[in-house]
Amino acid sequence: MAVRLGALAVALGATAAAVSLSAAAAALTSGTPSPYAFADGAQSVEGASSTGNAPLLKPGGTYKSSLPSSGKVSYRLDLDAASNAYVSVTAAPSPDSTVSVIDGVRVTVQDAEGNTCSVDNTSFGIARSPHPIAAWGMRQISPGKALCQKAGAHYVTVERVDPDGEGSSPDAWDLELVAMTEPRTAKTGPTSAPGVWNSATPQPLQGEAERREGGAGFTDATPIDQGVWQDDIRPGQTLFYAVPVDWGQQISVTAELGSTDSGSTDYISNALDLTLYNPARGDVADIGVGYNGGQNSGSLPPLPPIDHANRYAATAQVSALRFAGSHYLVAHLSEGVAAAYGDGPFPMTLRVRVSGQPQSGPEYAGESEPKGVFEVSDQDREAAAEGVTAGDDTAMRALAVGGIGTGSALLVGLGVWTVLARRGTAA
Question: What phi and psi values does residue 290 have, to the nearest 5 degrees?
Answer without folding.
Answer: -75, 165
